[in-house]
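Trying the structure run again after the queue cleared.
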Amino acid sequence: MFFQAEILTPPLTLATAPMITRLTVYPGTTTEQWVGFPKGCYGLAHMQIWYWGTQLWPYTPQTSFHWNDYVFNMHDRYPILEEPLELVMKTWNLDDTYPHELLFAVTMDAAPPEEEIRGLRRRLEMIGLLRSR
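Done. Tokens:
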């Protein structure tokens, strides 16, 4: 399954008050992700992707994707299995003149068998990328 969000972020949207965009998905596991920045962003537009209050991409807390005329492409498996089934994009734009339309897209496999889910959750909890619920 393929899901995408095109996010028009106004000028002077601050990191302390980012724009929030929710992308509803089906239950499953992410397989590939894209974060795109059109030509003209010059590193001024930023994006983070969150799920259940945890920053998923980029992994490093308090960092963000930002670039110019570039698409980040990742191959990452992360279970999205609990309501709300949505990824949250936080975007901001330090450009004082122009809005920038950023892209987030994700492909997902249908929900895997329960034993794979338990193993994946244990691994993600061990490395600190998933909080116990």
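The two ends are 26 Å apart (CA to CA). Worth checking whether this holds up in the mutant runs.
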